């Protein structure tokens, strides 16, 4: 993350690709994948 976004408290959110796989069991990215796949927002 760039210093500018850290100062402003901004977190980048880039959606995973449509062919994204789950990472380690504990990884927060997995929750994003789960929601996107359930809502069929991943193309």
Report what the structure shows.
It contains two helices and no strands. With 43 residues, it is an all-alpha fold.
Q: Which outline best applies?
A: elongated
> Which segments are poorly predicted (pLDDT under 50) over 5 or more consecutive residues?
none
User: Averaging pLDDT over every residue, what do you get?
Assistant: 74
> Biggest sheet: strands, sense, closure?
none
Protein name: Mobile element protein
How are the SSEs ordered, and which strands pair?
Blueprint: H1 3-8, H2 29-39
Which descriptors would you attach to this protein?
43 residues, 0% strand
Short description:
This protein is mainly α. It is 40% helix and 0% strand.
